[in-house]
Amino acid sequence: MTMPKVIRYEIQWDEETYALAERAAHASGLTSIKAYITQLVKQHAPEVLEAYSSIQLTNAQFDAFCEACDNLPAPTARLRKAAQALDQEGFVLNADR
Question: Mapped to the 3 state alphabet, what secondary structure does 12-75 carry?
Answer without folding.
Answer: CCCHHHHHHHHHHHHHCCCCCHHHHHHHHHHHHHHHHHHHHHCCCCCHHHHHHHHHHHHCCCCC
